[in-house]
Amino acid sequence: MELDDEGKVVLNKFTELPVVGEWPRRPLELATLRLQNMMAISIKNWKDLAPTDAELEAGVLTQLGGCVICDGNGNEVFSYKDQGICCVTNFEDILDKIPSE
To answer: Is the pTM higher than 0.70?
Structure first.
């Protein structure tokens, strides 16, 4: 941040970082979201989500990114798997797949 002589913000350097993908988020914003998900979901449920020893020995790596949307009957309406770091589901794609009533 750049401050003026009175201590007021003149420039937030964070806004100068490039956005990633179609969903306009900066890498630090994505990292924060991923960390929050990791703490709230992955670490909290590690015993249920972790690969087995046999899967690890076979070379299976865990993947934190993805999204599955199901209808009220459990049928898949939308799914997305991460293609790498800083990839996120495009929310507009989700909204396009959810049937309107």
So the answer is: no
